[in-house]
Amino acid sequence: MAVCIDAASFRNTGETTCHHLPCTINANGKANVADFFETAIRIENEGLTSSFRGRPLHGQEVTLPEGFIGVVLKEKGEAVIEEEVRQLHVQHRFLKFTAWNLDKIPNADDRLNKALRWISIARALHRPVDLESSQQSVSGK
């Protein structure tokens, strides 16, 4: 199944607040996050704390790597058959989000943090090498 993102829709979007929760919610549609979740967020010594359906959450604000912008996509209609191209458009964009963990304080070993660190590692690995300057540094000149 192919996916097509309407790039023109990016121009008409504003920034939004996003949360990455460690759960699956079997629902699509709007949720009143501002009133029912964000009002319960507290700042404590270990970082951010809250709860979702009675379960304790620990969070941290995560900034996307330089040069990256996060987007919230919405499907224009639904694909009727599997081979049909799915049409998505950009609803919102974000430069940072809050990542939440169940029962543990977020740290550098979280999968999400490791994935975001990989972006800078991949940039360094795939950056073109200037042979002349690298030869000079090896020879000590």
UniProtKB/TrEMBL annotation:
Domain of life: Eukaryota
Pfam families per record: RNase_H2_suC
UniProt name for this protein: Uncharacterized protein
GO biological process, one term: RNA catabolic process
Species: Pomacea canaliculata (Golden apple snail)
GO CC aspect terms: ribonuclease H2 complex
Source organism phylogeny: Eukaryota, Metazoa, Spiralia, Lophotrochozoa, Mollusca
